[in-house]
Each structure stands twice: as structure tokens, then as C-alpha cells.
Design a protein that fits this description.
The chain is of the alpha/beta class. It has a single domain, classed as P-loop containing nucleotide triphosphate hydrolases (Rossmann fold, 3-Layer(aba) Sandwich). The protein is about 35% helix and about 30% strand. It contains seven helices and twelve strands. The strands form three sheets. A six-stranded mixed beta sheet has the order 6-9-10-3-11-12, with helices on both faces. Strands 2-1-4-5 form a four-stranded antiparallel beta sheet. The mean pLDDT is about 95. The structure holds adenosine-5'-diphosphate and magnesium ion (2 copies). The site of adenosine-5'-diphosphate has 12 residues, from α1.
């Protein structure tokens, strides 16, 4: 089992405090959902964990099996097993999807354990079939001209290929129709297991009908205001954030 511990994390952007003390422990074999209104700091949490330089950690710790993540360079974090699916994936012209994926997978492997072309192609075919992606998408430049839904699917493809220990999935459901949502959920569910944990950031309960979270956190104003089981997401859907704000913090 691996553990990602976030302890009293404070993060500022351009001198303004956005995260005001976040505590959260994620284990492998668990899926946690983070919900919360726009601007609550959900993406900030993911970006700070991955080491985006625009986000200044002013206090607190992030530990991956006791190792200080905040001391690591960004690429070290990825090699250590952290993965971030961003809200707005960027386009990288000139780099094909397949070559990007193979490089990302090999970055996590030892010199004598690099993945060969055949093995890579076999795995890629399998994962793309799972996500119902046309084969030609492997040869297109990374995210270039991809629709919103294709970009989201491609983020999950990366996750399936790289097999991180912990995946932070930021709004992988935004802009998806119901079919695409189910496909993306299928990909995440395929990753579930002893070697994998995930933090799913979403605005909507809808995604959580397809990816059953073990724990739901509600972030408000830079803090985790509530944590509970999957029923918390349903309560939120029914009552809205204002409704929740009048109930006691659960845990
Ligand atoms: P969420 O993902 O919960 O919608 P964010 O983490 O994106 O929230 O944003 C939290 C707050 O930080 C918001 O008030 C937002 O305007 C601010 N913020 C986010 N990114 C930046 C940035 N690059 N520069 C300045 N302010 C930012
Ligand atoms: Mg937002
Ligand atoms: Mg966000």
C-alpha cells in the first residue's frame, strides 16, 4: 500500500492565500472525490501537489510514503508515481500522442527495463480500445485539434498507460456527454486496485454515479469543509453548497 499525505497545506498565488490548511490522506485502493464551488481551490490543490511553479506552498507538507514531495522537481514527482490530468490539457504540436506516451512510460522505468515498441503498441491498442478511441489518434500530435471530449479521454489514456500510483483527475468530466462520461469512468475503474489511488475533482455528482468514490470531500474557501461517504455527494446535489454549509462538519 502507498499513501499520499497532505498535511496542513497552505498555498498562495501571487501572494494571495488560496489554500488555507488542507489535510487529506489518500491510500492506494481508494478513490476520493473533491467537490466544491468554483474558486474553492480544488485545481490549486492538484497543481501544488504536482509542483506547478505558479503555486507557492507557504506552509504544510505533502508526503508520498513519507517522502517529501515538495522537495522534488516536477519530473521527479511523476517518476515517484504522481499523475495529474489537468482541466485544460495543452496541445503539443510536433509530438505524437504515441511518442509522448512511450517517453512518459519509459521515464518511470529503469535503463534495463524500457518498454519495447511491440509491447508498447500492444498495450496502447488495448487501452485505446477500452476507451473507444480510434487508432489514428495515437499518431496525431498531442491534443492538437482534439475536441474537449477527446482531450479528456486522452488524459485517461495517459493514466492507463503510465499507471501512476496516485492520479489527480481535475474535472475529467467537464463538457462530456453521457456516453463519453461512461467511457472515461470505465477507464478510471479499470485502474482501481491495490496499486492505485485517485483524487477525483468534480463539480457534479453525475460522474460519481459511474465512479463510486470511497470518500467525498467538499472544499470551500481553501479548506476541506466536509468529508463523508458517497452520500455526501448526493446530499450536495440535493441541497447545494448553501444547504451543506448549515450542517455540521462531519469528519
Ligand atoms: P477551483 O478549481 O476550485 O475552481 P482554483 O484552484 O482554480 O479553484 O482557484 C482558486 C482561486 O485561486 C480562485 O479565486 C482563482 O481565481 C485563483 N487563481 C487560480 N489560479 C490563479 C492564477 N494563476 N493567478 C491568480 N489567481 C488564480
Ligand atoms: Mg473551477
Ligand atoms: Mg478547477
Amino acid at each position: 500500500m502507498a499513501t499520499l499525505e497532505i498535511i496542513d497545506l497552505h498555498v498562495a498565488i501571487e501572494g494571495k492565500e488560496i489554500l488555507k490548511g488542507v489535510d487529506l490522506t489518500l491510500n492506494t485502493n481508494e478513490i476520493h472525490a473533491i467537490m466544491g464551488p468554483n474558486g474553492a481551490g480544488k485545481s490549486t490543490l492538484a497543481a501544488a501537489i504536482m509542483g506547478n511553479p505558479a503555486y507557492e506552498v507557504t506552509q504544510g507538507q505533502v508526503l508520498l510514503d513519507g517522502q517529501d514531495v515538495l522537495e522534488m522537481e516536477v519530473d521527479e514527482r511523476a517518476r515517484a508515481g504522481l499523475f495529474l490530468a489537468v482541466q485544460y490539457p495543452s496541445e503539443i504540436p510536433g509530438v505524437t500522442n504515441a511518442s509522448f506516451l512511450r517517453a512518459a512510460m519509459n521515464a518511470r522505468r529503469a535503463e534495463d527495463d524500457k518498454i519495447g515498441v511491440r509491447q508498447f503498441m500492444q498495450k496502447l491498442d488495448e487501452k485505446m480500445a477500452l476507451l473507444e478511441m480510434p487508432e489514428e489518434m495515437a499518431l496525431r500530435y498531442l491534443n492538437e485539434g482534439f475536441s474537449g471530449g477527446e482531450k479528456k479521454r486522452n488524459e485517461i489514456l495517459q493514466c492507463l498507460m503510465i499507471e501512476p500510483t496516485f492520479a489527480l483527475l481535475d474535472e475529467i468530466d467537464s463538457g462530456l456527454d453521457i456516453d463519453a462520461l461512461q467511457i472515461v469512468a470505465r477507464g478510471v475503474n479499470a485502474l482501481r486496485g491495490e496499486q492505485f489511488g485517485s483524487l477525483i475533482i468534480t463539480h457534479y455528482q453525475r460522474l460519481l454515479n459511474y465512479i463510486q468514490p470511497d470518500i467525498v470531500h467538499i472544499m470551500m474557501d481553501g479548506r476541506i469543509a466536509f468529508s463523508g461517504g458517497p452520500e455526501l455527494a448526493k446530499q450536495l446535489e440535493a441541497e447545494g453548497y448553501k444547504g451543506l454549509a448549515t450542517t455540521e462538519k462531519e469528519g
